[in-house]
Amino acid sequence: MLLSVNLKTRYPEKKRTKDLRTFGLDERALQDILFQSLDRLFPEDELILLMQSRVWREEPDLMAIDKDGSLYIFELKIGESKSENLLQVLRYGQIFGASQYDDLNKLYKRIPDRT
User: Fold this and answer.
1) For the whole model, what pTM was predicted?
2) What is the pLDDT of residues 16-25, one digit of tens each?
């Protein structure tokens, strides 16, 4: 299942499909698309993208913070999710959930053009 966001109503709509390969995409391609366009799905004052994962690192695919300081962890999968994926996200919560603003700022500054 994929979601399509209606920008006028701001409600997601389910779109039935097999998986991302239906669109000729893999997980990294979707991650790149969301990294470049997350501000279109969520207003800039609502979510600030902090990081995109690097290859061979124990990091979530995307991580963002909202205006109240709540951390959002995005873990993308090419197809239907499995129960172990929830454990992966919980692990990222353990690793990054206690981060201080200075730690998060370092992640934010890793993105090119944000130094």
Assistant:
1) 0.69
2) 666 777 777 7
